[in-house]
What we know:
By secondary structure, the protein is α/β, with parallel strands linked by helices. The protein is about 40% helix and about 15% strand. It has ten helices and eight strands. The chain has helices spanning about 20-30, 45-55, 85-90, 100-105, 110-120, 135-140, 140-155, 180-200, 215-220, 240-250; strands spanning about 5-10, 40-45, 60-65, 95, 125-130, 165, 205-210, 225-230. The structure holds phosphoenolpyruvate. Phosphoenolpyruvate binds near residues 11, 168, 230, 233 and 234.
Amino acid sequence: MTNNNIYFIANWKMYGNLNSLNSVKKVIELSKKKKFKNTNIIYCPPYTLLNDFSKLTKKTRVKVGAQNCHEFEFSGPFTGSVSPHMIASLGVKYIIIGHSENRSIGENNSTINKKIISSIKQKLKIIFCFGETLKQKKRNETNHVLKKQISEGLKNIKKIDNILFAYEPVWSIGTGVVPKISDLQIQMRILKKFISKKFKSKNPVLLYGGSVNQKNAILFKQINEIKGFLVGGASQNSNKFIDIIKKTII
Ligand code: PEP
């Protein structure tokens, strides 16, 4: 990992309220420092805070992302849902799609594909999540599962310039358990090779997510293929998130 164009994405999941916005100001201040001018910091709060985040980060280097959307681009009779158009209209630039917490409650590759296509039409940049479960890992199915999630999730998509590929082993999310560096390095190489070939792209942006903290970020940054982190738990505390950023960008 070099220091250039590295991503730090905060996934707040179903946490946070208006008071939490105050703590983000510290991160905005950090982003203004020259040292971090090539660092991409993106906050993905719950829908309820998107507008406030958008206003708070306007004219700053920090960007905002949503955590999911409905597969329909505009509007419709879908109670409780939010469309990519609604999200984009708030000035939001990114969107997480395919997170395992949504896959585990029924979201499949086909729905994910529809959501991605609708979001791309709205010019949102996609943080595309994929990863194997512990059961799949134990059965040695990891590569098969990842390739299927990528191929089906990105069906009919030719250009990946606006897609970030977030490899998130399900067994690592929120557990404190992380892959061995040597295993992760091999996995990232396999993914890079597969994605590069499939989409004829020299440098797909690959991220890692799963129990990232300030200690393991230093180790993960040794892996050249990793261009940043999707951070869940640790991103809800600004000091911890800042620590991860500072320890990675040196
Ligand atoms: C996530 O929610 O994408 C995630 C990686 O969570 P955590 O960092 O808490 O494992």
